[in-house]
Amino acid sequence: MPTKRVSQQPLAEGRTKRLHATDANSRPTRPLDPKDNDELNTSDAENVEQGPRRSGRERCDVSRFDAKPVGEMGQVEPRFHLVPRQPGWHPMVSKMRCAARNVMHLKLKRLPRAPGGSCWLIPCDDERGVQVAQLAPQLRALGWKILTSEAHVVALLGCKAGLREHAERHGLLEHLPAYFSGPDDARFPCVLKAATGVYGKDCFIVRCKEDILKVTEDGFGSRWVLQELMRGVHEYSTSLLVVKGEIIDSCCTRYEYDEEEYVWPRVNEIGWKRNFPPVPDTHMAVMRDFLSAPGYEFSGICNFNYKIREDGRMSIFEINTRVGADFACDIPRPKARAMLEKLDSLFP
């Protein structure tokens, strides 16, 4: 039967507005060619859209590492392109001060050449992540630097239903929330979410069987995932630089919200309590197990979203097999820059 929709309206992409900023990055070189619409030009910076932040409210108390502008964007060659452009990201991306950009949509019908003959291409949405993996040979031939995996690995780990399949195949289910096969099997309240999607779209807290049937009557385990509701005000997002399943670098962000039961972004973050704790070795080992399973070794920048149970175990909601907003906007800018520089040093 076709999927039904409920009146509950998920919020748009959950990030608060950011101020525009000119880039504060490195080496001045020739201006980019304004004739190539797929490359950077100064008008892109002026037209970057503003968008909501992760907390769904204005960030007022969270300190940031502000970079002083040293020149106009068109006077430096990009070294890292995060694609596609996301609302409100570029001002924070540019503050990494390593010639990183988030201004290009990446038109795959006509693959662009890398600016300056060589530049990193880093996906920041699920669709682009799979497409970049599929087109990696062609993109490399055009001068782009790519760190990616087999396309089926990117797609499987980045799909919520696929993540459960992967965990079951490799004995990792204890690190995920409990899954339910359908409404009759569910323990309420629980979470109903689309198998694919970002920013909390098509994700609902359901408190009875009737709530589920208002959304859909079938597709459980394929198009829809029904899983345990994890309570608690703290949520973690850890970004990782990974090469063939080995974690090279990481940065964890701990967010605190004003409710115990929520579906992000329909909740308010207590911004001044955000911090960046070290990742315990036990949690790092769990993430490595997901990323290094035989035949499914991952390479690239990815992101784990999870809560921590009372006994200290991770409960992983999803793996984003691409750059997330925590890396692009939230973690300290020097740390984000260091991770990109480490990526570049691995593949000069």
How does the helix and strand content classify structurally? alpha/beta
User: And the CATH topology of one domain?
Assistant: D-amino Acid Aminotransferase, Chain A, domain 1
Based on CA inertia axes, which overall geometry fits?
globular
> Strands of the largest sheet, in order across it?
2-1-3-4
Q: Can you give the helix content as a percent range?
A: 10-25%
Straight-line N-to-C gap: 52 Å
Low-confidence stretches: 1-53, 55-74
Gyration radius, to the nearest Å?
20 Å
CATH class of one domain: Alpha Beta
The average pLDDT is 82
In the CATH classification, which architecture of one domain applies?
2-Layer Sandwich
Number of helices: 10
The largest pleated sheet is described as: 4 strands, parallel
Element-by-element helix/strand order: HEHEEHHEHHEEEHEEEHEEHH
Got a strand count?
12
Strand content: 15-25%
CATH homologous superfamily of one domain - what is it? ATP-grasp fold, B domain
GO molecular function: ATP binding; metal ion binding
Protein name: ATP-grasp domain-containing protein
Keywords: ATP-binding, Nucleotide-binding
